[in-house]
Amino acid sequence: MRLINLKRLLFSFIFIFLIAPLNVTVFSQPIKKLPPRFKQWLEEEVVYIITSTEKEVFLQLKTDKERELFIKAFWKQRDPTPGTPENEFKEEHYRRINYANHHFGRGVPKPGWQTDRGRIYIILGEPRDIQSYTGNSEIFNAEVWFYQGLSQYGLPPGFNLIFYQKNNVGEYVLYSPSSDGPQALLTSYFGDQADYMAAYRTLKRINPALANISLSLIPGERAQFGRPSLASDILLQNIISVPKKRLNDIYAKKFLMYKDIVEVDYSTNYIDNNHSVKIFQDPTGLFFVHYAVELNKFSVQQFKQTYSTHLKINGYVADHQDKTIYQFENSFSIKLNEEEIKKIYYLPFDLYDMFPLIPGSYQFSIIVKNEVSKEFTTFEKEITIPAETSSARLSSLILSYKLDKRPTDSKRLKPFKIGDHQLFFQPRNIFRPQDTLFVGFQILNLDPSLIQKTKLKFEFLKESQPFLTEVKKVSQYPDRMNFIQEFPLEKFPPGHYQIKISLIENEKEISSQMERFEISPAAAIPRPWVYSREILPPTHPLYSFIIGRQLFNKGEMEKAEKLLAAAYNSKPDSLEYALSLAKVYFALHKYAQTKRLLLPFANSENVPYQLYLILGNSHQLLGEFQEAIGIYKQAIDQFGLTFNLLNSLGECYYRLGLKEEALASWEKSLEIKPNQPEITKKIKNLKKGLYPKLIGDDKSRNIPSASCRG
Question: Which end of the chain is less crowded, N or C, counting CB atoms within 10 A of the terminal residue's CB?
Answer without folding.
Answer: N
